[in-house]
Structure formats: C-alpha cells, structure tokens
Design brief:
heterodimer; A: 293 residues; mainly alpha; two-stranded antiparallel sheet; 2 strands; B: 388 residues; alpha/beta; Rossmann fold; 2 domains; 7-stranded mixed sheet; 5-stranded parallel sheet
C-alpha cells in the first residue's frame, strides 16, 4: 500500500505538470482555434527564467516565481503580436498561425541556446530534496509544492473563466467569434490575452519542473508532446479537463511502468497508446464544453 | 597626359608590390610555425566534451611554445568544428590537410573520428584521437597512421567489473536512459556483469524528458539488489534518477560509467551523488596530475578534471613524436608515433604508461581507475586496473 501511495504522489506531480501545459494549449486554442505547439517552449523559457531570477540573481522564490510567470506571459503576448496578429489581420488561411507558431518554436529554442548555452543548468529545490512523509503518503517537498501550486493555479484560472466578465468574454469568443464581435467584445484583446495567459501558465510549469530535471534548451519538446496528449484526453472545452487529462495520462504512464509485466522501455509507449485510443473512441476528450452538453 | 600615364603605371607597380609582400609575409608565417589540425565540435552533441579538451590543448600549447616550440618552430593549432557529424568531419580533415597541417587530432565523437580517418589514411597523415573510447577506431580500418590514446570502452568496463568483484556484488540492478549511448552502455554493462557471474535482478529505462523516475526506482527497490549500475548519460534523466533514489530511501551503492567523470552532473544535482563510484582515467594524487592541475588552475582559473588532461596529453605525445622524428615528414612522424613507448602522462593510473609499440590504441589496459564522489567533488581513487 505504501508503495502505491508513493506512486500516486508521483502521478499527481507529473499529472500536474502535464495538466498545466495542456491548460496553456487550451487557453490559446479555445478563443482562437489555434493549436500552439510552442507551448512546450514557453515552459522551457519559464525554466530558463528561473535560472536567471532564482539561480543567478538569487531572488527568493516568492519574488522569483511571479517574475518568471510575468516574463513568459510577456513572451506569449509578444508572440501574438509578432506571429499571429499580422496573419489574422490579413485573413490568412486557418493553418497559417499554426505554422507561424512552429517557426516561433525554432526561434525560441535557438535563442535560449545562444543566450544560455547548450549545457544543463541548475535551479535549486526551494525546500531540499529529501523524503517528506505525511502519514502514509511520501514524496519530496518539491512534489507537494508542485501539487499545491497547480491546484491553486487551476482554481484561479477556473474562477477567471467561470466568475468574471473577461472570462465570459473568452467563452463567448470560443463559442462564436462573429457573434461575440457583434456584441462588442474586442477580439484582438481576447486573442492577445489568451496568448499572454497561456504563456504565463506554461511558464509556471517550466519553473516548477526546473529543480527536478535541470534546465536544457531541448526540454520543451517532451513537455509539448505530453501536454498535447493530456489535452486530447481531457478535452479542450473545460479548464478542469486539462488537469484531468494530465492526471490520467500520468496515471497510465506510471502504473504501466511500475506494475505491467513488460520491459520498462516498452512501457514508455503506454501514454501514446492511450492517445490513439482517445482519438479513435472519444475524440472530444473526457469533458465536453458546457455549450456542447 | 604623360603624368597621368605615369601615375597609372606607378599605381599598378605598387599594387603588384603589395600583393607580393602579402604573399611573402604569409609564406614566412606559415614557415615559422608547425600547424596541427584539431577537429573539434563547438555546437553539436559533443560540444560539452570537446570544450574542456580544447582547454587542455591550449595549456599544452602554451607550455610547448613557452619552452621554444619544437624543431625551432612554434606550434600553431588550427581548429575546425564538425558538429559531431561524420560527413562534415571528413570534409574538415580534407580542409585541414589543404591548410598545411602536419597532423590531425580529433576531439569530436567516435563515429566522426572514424569517418575523418578515411581522408587521413588516404593522405597518409598522422591522425590521433586523445579521448575517443570506441574500440573499432583502430580495428575497422587498417590505418597505420591512426593512433588512439583514450581508454577503450572495454578497458573501462573491465575495470568496473573488477571493482564489482572486489565488492562481491552478486545481485545488481541496471538503470539506463533511452539515449543511444545510454542504451548501448546498458547492454555492455549487462553482458559484462552476466559474463562475470553477477545476476541483473532489475533493468529499468528512464525516458529523456520524464518528470520523475519513481516507478522505475520502486521496481529497483523491490528487487533488493546489492548495488545499482547506472549507464545513462543524459543529465535530466540522471537528475530524476537521483531524486527518486533519495525520495525512496535507497541505500545501495551506485556505480556509473566514465560519463560521470564530467563535473556537470555535480553542478546540476549538487549533493545528490554522494558515494557514487565511477570510472575515470584521472588520478588526482599522481605527481603528473598535481603539476598539471597547478598549471591548469594558473591558466584557466579552475581545477581541472579528466577531459582537459586528454587534450594536454594528446598534444604532448604528438609533439614528442615530432621531436624524435626530427621532421614533419608524414612517414617519419608516423614511425616516431608508432615508436612511442613508456609515456607517462597526466592520464592513467599510477605506474601505467602509453605505448603504441604493440597496439595503436596505446592506453594501458590497467590504466583506468574507479573513483568515489565525496563532498560533491570527484574524490579519491578506490580501485585501479582490471585485476580484483
């Protein structure tokens, strides 16, 4: 039992990170219809921001963490200004912004490798790396910090979408862009905000992950793949779907490695099998948008 | 009209003089130095390894030139980066030969060095790798102009197995990452362990980019091994391995490959690798290593590890051969290199030396050592050689 509870902490930790990246995809996708495959690179930029603010400038976490989130939010907003808005203005084909963002992915990666180099970089674990036991549940302080921070972040984003006028505007744009524009909603501002908030959310994932894996310019791609898989599983319609998708993905991944009687190398393929199953059997994901119900 | 005509001719004459002076000056510079080509990697997968080797080369260069050079001339290093791409490496070898180098040192990865050999063998140019460990470099091609100074992979594994036997580890777990080299080393580890009668009770793979390694390490813990072998090389996967190791309260000794001799791991996961045993070719207590460390610290402001020593020893052996050959003639230099015997450099266990007289892979089979990480630094040698 102790073994299983340890594993569940690991599932929640990994699922939280995947869920955050899925949420970053979702926040951009819903109002704009654009799949932003650069979300993983935003997370990597968040990790590099942590190297600057927390490792090099030695800012305390309580100041460094919000600064990293703001920095990546700014990167998200700039991305919209540079790579998306000019295409939307010119009524470019639907696929154009997706391709443009793939180009931005390369630019981000090359820029961070030029500025920070190709070596792995260190970000300290704010509360140490030893084992922490809460009754029969065991993990590291970083595991529990990640889980608490992600639950708090998802609650904030959920409140934004469900309880504020701005959130309602996002929902309206997601349902029907033309009707939302006729109602006076500023589409340009909603698009820009979706990129800024999406960047901030992905950046948070990178900052939380940096002390565990170290920081490297190629770290964005695996996060982008896992985040997208979590998005497909959870569905694009609801904030909580991203978290649910992340947790289910992590559960299948970890439980297969731990308990399936197959070589661990093969077990690494389990999440992708899950992705294929969802695409075939439930392409809308676990949770559908309220309007679709 | 006449004046204008004269000015035209004076101008042309001056231009010819200038070009001639430039050519003469370039020729004079070329004749004043002995050029040695270096095929390095500054942007590819091996850049992190090649950079410290370059630092060692530069130290050896300053010492050699500070002592007057060789054959009355200074040594000049001509660098070319191959991005760890074999085809590019061969092109760079050709470029260096055209630039007039007398020999080439490859400090890139093994496949690239192998490809560059196809060019140097054809040109009958002395070619040496100070650090590559792949055994095939001196066996696949019958190239008498190629020499290898780094410890072969087989030597390193045999040394680690001798240490394993000494510690009587009967049941071990094997953990690797899913990188190409990590998987390859894992296979070699398993074969060597089983050939020595050690049972591999668990084998686990950590995915590059994964957020933790808890399920894999739970399986390792459940198998109750005497020790854990880690053949991985990717830093992020190594970080998740050690985080899980501590989180799950594991106490078994961890043994790693020669890749752990790179201090980057200690910088990225400080304090987590205490007590880890790893293969190295560098004994910091050896007299030659102490002198090297002092000179390196003076030049570069930091304490060296094994990689800079590969570059340092490599250039010193080559220059010693040029000196003994008394010439930079390809054939004479090849003969002098092949006659290298009993060279005691910075690398290698105490009492071991480099010999090319029997084998073009000159690192002694008993030259590798096992060291332990202590206080987040590469600690003392606890075992050397392939005997128990």
């Amino acid at each position: 039992m102790e073994d299983f509870l340890e594993l569940m902490v690991s599932v929640c930790e990994a699922g939280s990170i995947y869920g955050l990246v899925a949420l970053a995809y979702q926040i951009v996708l819903r109002p704009t219809g654009i799949i932003n495959f650069a979300a993983g690179e935003w997370a990597a930029i968040g990790a590099f921001a942590a190297v600057s603010f927390i490792t090099w400038w030695k800012l305390p976490l309580i100041i460094g963490l919000p600064m990293c989130i703001l920095a990546v939010g700014l990167v998200g907003w700039l991305t919209e200004v540079i790579a998306v808005q000019p295409l939307l203005k010119r009524d470019a084909p639907e696929l154009s912004p997706v391709l443009s963002l793939l180009g931005m992915l390369i630019i981000y990666r090359e820029t961070v490798s030029s500025v920070y180099g190709v070596d792995n970089l260190f970000v300290p674990m704010p509360f140490g790396f030893g084992r922490v036991e809460l009754g029969s549940i065991a993990g590291t302080s970083q595991s529990f910090f990640i889980i608490i921070t992600v639950v708090f972040s998802f609650t904030l984003v959920w409140l934004f979408f469900e309880r504020t006028m701005w959130g309602k505007a996002f929902q309206a744009v997601a349902i029907n862009r033309v009707a939302a524009a006729l109602l006076g909603i500023n589409l340009r501002l909603v698009t820009a905000m979706s990129f800024a908030i999406g960047g901030a959310v992905a950046g948070l994932a990178g900052v939380l992950l940096a002390p565990i894996t170290s920081v490297h310019f190629l770290m964005g791609l695996p996060l982008a793949v896992k985040g997208f898989t979590a998005l497909v599983i959870g569905g694009v319609g609801r904030v909580e779907g991203a978290l649910l998708g992340g947790l289910l993905l992590a559960f299948v991944e970890k439980v297969t490695i731990r308990y399936a009687p197959i070589p661990s190398g093969l077990a690494l393929g389990a999440p992708f099998l899950l992705l294929i199953l969802f695409l075939l059997l439930r392409p809308s994901g676990l949770l559908r948008a309220r309007g679709e119900q | 009209m006449r004046t204008k005509y004269n000015i035209k001719w004076y101008g042309l004459f001056s231009a010819i003089l200038l070009v001639a002076a430039g050519l003469w000056s370039a020729t004079a510079t070329a004749q004043d130095t002995i050029k040695v080509g270096i095929i390095t990697d500054r942007v590819g997968n091996s850049a992190a390894w090649a950079k410290p080797i370059e630092a060692g080369l530069e130290l050896a260069l300053s010492e050699i030139n500070g002592a007057g050079g060789v054959l009355g001339k200074k040594i000049e290093l001509v660098y070319e980066s191959d991005q760890s791409k074999p085809d590019v490496s061969a092109t760079k070898a050709r470029k260096l030969i055209d630039a007039g180098v007398v020999a080439i040192l490859s400090i890139t990865n093994s496949p690239s060095t192998q490809q560059a050999q196809t060019v140097t063998m054809n040109a009958k140019m002395v070619h040496m790798t100070p650090a590559n460990s792949a055994g095939y470099l001196t066996t696949k091609l019958k190239n008498p102009y190629f020499f290898q100074m780094g410890p072969l992979g087989s030597t390193q594994i045999r040394t680690l197995m001798a240490y394993n036997k000494k510690n009587n580890f009967k049941r071990v777990a094997l953990v690797k990452d899913n990188s190409g080299l990590g998987t390859y080393l894992g296979k070699i580890f398993r074969q060597s362990l089983e050939a020595g009668g050690t049972k591999v009770v668990a084998e686990q793979t950590i995915e590059i980019g994964s957020t933790d390694a808890i399920p894999q390490m739970q399986k390792v813990r459940a198998a109750k091994p005497d020790a854990i072998y880690h053949s991985g090389i990717v830093v992020s996967a190594m970080a998740t391995f050690f985080k899980a190791y501590h989180q799950l309260g594991l106490k078994q000794p961890v043994l790693g490959s020669f890749n752990l001799s790179i201090p980057k791991y200690l910088e990225v996961i400080p304090g987590m690798m205490e007590g880890v045993a790893f293969i190295d070719a560098y004994d910091p207590d050896k007299a030659q290593s102490k002198a090297f460390a002092a000179a390196y610290k003076k030049k570069h402001g930091k304490t060296p590890f094994s990689l800079p020593a590969y570059g340092y020893d490599g250039l010193k052996v080559l220059v010693s051969a040029i000196k003994r050959a008394g010439s930079t003639n390809n054939e004479k230099l090849r003969s002098a290199m092949a006659a290298t015997k009993g060279y005691v450099g910075v690398l290698g266990a105490k009492g071991q030396s480099v010999n090319f007289t029997k084998n073009r892979a000159g690192f002694s089979v008993d030259g590798a050592v096992v060291r332990i990480i202590k206080k987040n630094t590469h600690g003392p040698v606890v075992h050397s050689g392939t005997k128990n």
